[in-house]
Structures are given as structure tokens and as C-alpha cells.
Design goal:
It is built from 14 helices and 13 strands. Bound molecules: flavin mononucleotide and benzoyl-formic acid. The site of flavin mononucleotide has 23 residues, from α14.
Amino acid sequence: MEEKPVVVSMSNEIILSIEDLQKEGSKKLPTFKRDFFNSGSTGQITVHENSTAYSKYRIRPRVLRNVSKASTSTVVLGRRISFPLCVSPAGLQAMAHPDGELATSRACAKRGIHMGISSFSNYTVEEVIQAGREVGPTGHVMQLYTMKDRALEERIIRRAEAAGCTAIFLTADSPVLGVRYNEWRNDFRTPDGLEFPMIEKTTEMIKAQTHDSSFMAFNSDSHSWADDIPWIRSKTKMQIWIKGVLTAEDVLLAREYGCDGVIVSNHGGRQLDGTSATIDALPECVEAADGKIRVHIDGGIRTGADIFKAIALGAECCWIGRPVIWGLAYNGQKGVEKALDILYDEFRRCMMLTGCTSVSEISKASLGIVRADGPLARL
Ligand SMILES: Cc1cc2nc3c(=O)[nH]c(=O)nc-3n(C[C@H](O)[C@H](O)[C@H](O)COP(=O)(O)O)c2cc1C
Ligand SMILES: O=C(O)C(=O)c1ccccc1
């Protein structure tokens, strides 16, 4: 991506923010789809707090600095990307737009960032990567659940590696699905015609089950660090990242088991409601990582300033889930590009307005926190 602001503020443009995209994208979906994509679990506390928790931080800008050559680019998973944002693995993208993960892959390649491919992708890892490569250089990671059928899990790992993925993101927060009243109320089922080719499920097989029962049948809840990490390590040379970590204790285990990184994540508030916002869990995870393994974050990131704050608190990179879904629903590949352009432009302006000329200059000193009745406190 070129290092100049993308013009998003045209007067006839109705989508200026991720909030606009959420509104317009959601409008295009029937209730059962919109509820599936947008909801969190149980009381919707964590899904809400993931975004709102960012607002307690205030930015401490430095002024009168030469920011004419400010660069947003950074190296993540061994490749230089245009800014510290990538796309989280989210299943069932063809339910938002027929092109699904293919459109997302093309948009990511066009905008120079990495994409996570869900095990519940509606297209194969080979198809998704190929679609991106037709547009430009790509970086993909394969999301994995611990599976009852280890032979299937191994086939996915091997296909991902052969297709060119650089890492496995092992989702560790889902021994069972969260409590999702909306899915149950709507008797949510995967729409006819959609397949999950990576887990080798045809539309006929999927039709017979609810989302919940098919997940339970396939996913292993007897997983453990000792049983799963060395086993994955023995099957692949790809990096191994643990997605869904929220505590210092688990970061220490990830280090002990030789993982390459963790994604501080609560699954977008869809699994255990009542967990803390990821931005609030980030500091203890960064401290426990102690620079020995990498720490990324997802959940609730909706503005360029949110990205800036997460980087200031020690994340190497941020990932987004729903903004991509809203982009797909709004206008396929172009809608995803729109989501990425909004966040890129906001992040770049935020860097320039805080006097940062490179991502590595963003630090704790860039943030403060407002405590009751007090002046801005430094972190
Ligand atoms: C519709 C949807 C499907 C998802 N599917 C998966 C998945 O298959 N595997 C996974 O590890 N996480 C999945 N996630 C979680 C995302 O990877 C990510 O953690 C979350 O969406 C980030 O929060 P955000 O949506 O607020 O940006 C899904 C999230 C959504 C909203
Ligand atoms: O719903 C989810 O959060 C999720 O992880 C998922 C799992 C399988 C298919 C689609 C989404």
C-alpha cells in the first residue's frame, strides 16, 4: 500500500467509519445471519466491552515533529505488511457474500496484510490462497481447532503448509461453543449450498445438524497443552500460535511449550461472556511474554486509534473479525477493501497527529488513562 492517506472523506460517500459499515452491511443481511455474525454470548457483556474499553485510554500526542515521512509498515510473521492490522479467521464468510473468503483474500493481498483462514472456511485453503496470489503477494495463516479426528486435523495441517501458510493459529478458547441465545432462538443452521471443505463437510452433512451440534461432534474437548502442542509441532514446520489467551499464566505455558506467539482474544465475545476486554488483558500477557514470544490481539478493534492504543500497550499487531464480515455483506471484496482503507487511513493520521514516524516509536509514553477526578495519569 502506498504511504499516503486514502481519501475516504468524499462528501457523497456514506461509509466513512467502521460504525457506518456495520450499519449498512448489517442492513443487507436477514436477521438470522446478522444475529449470527454480530452477537456475543450470554449477556453480551464482553462483546460490548471489547470495543468500549479502549475509550478509557487517552492519547498523549507529541507535536511539532516532522511526520512527512511517517511509515505505518511493520514486519509480522516474517513479511513486511502495510500497517499492523490483519484479518482474523472467521468461518462461514460465504454466508455474508457468495465470494466469501476468496473476496477477503483478494482484499488482503491488495492492501498488503495477512489473512487467517478458518477451519470452517467455505472455500479450501488452496482456493483462498490462489485468489489472493492473483492480486499480489500474500501471507496466510491457518486456524485450527483441536479435533476429535486427529487424521482430519493432520490433513488440514499438511494442506495448509503445502498451500503456503506460514503459521497455525490454534484456537484454544473453544472446548465447547459459548452460550448463544440468538443462535438457539433462530435455530441457526448453515444455509443450504454452503460447504466446509477443510473439515470435509458437504452441504448434505451440514444440513442435518445445528451449528452447535456439528461443532460438538467435531471438536475435541479433551485437549491439553501436553497432548496437542508437541503433536502439532511433530507434524509441521509452520509457526504455532495460540489464539484465545487472556492470562499471564497461559502465556507462560505457551512459552514453555515453544509456541511462537499468542493472540490475546476472547473470540470476539462469542465464547465465555464475562471475560475481560482483550485490551484489558493485554498488559499482563505482554509482561508474561517478556519479549520471548510475540503477542497479538483481536476483539473490538473498530478505529485506527484502537490499533494505536493496542500497539502502545505492547501488541505487535492487531486483528479484526466482524468489520470484514460487514464489508463482505456491504459489497464483497470492495467492502472489505473499504474496511481496511478506513482503518489504514485512521491509523496513519493517528500516528502523524501523535508525532510518530514509525510503528516502533509508538510506546506506553503515547498513552495516559483518566482516573476518577484526576488529571491524565501516565501509564
Ligand atoms: C462470524 C464469526 C465467525 C468466527 N469464526 C471463527 C473461527 O472459525 N475460528 C476462530 O478461531 N475464531 C473465529 N471467530 C473469532 C475471530 O477470529 C476473532 O477472534 C473475533 O471476531 C475478533 O473480534 P471482532 O469481531 O470484534 O473483531 C469468529 C468470529 C465471528 C464474528
Ligand atoms: O461462531 C464462531 O465463533 C465460530 O468460531 C465458528 C465456528 C464454526 C463455524 C463458524 C463460526
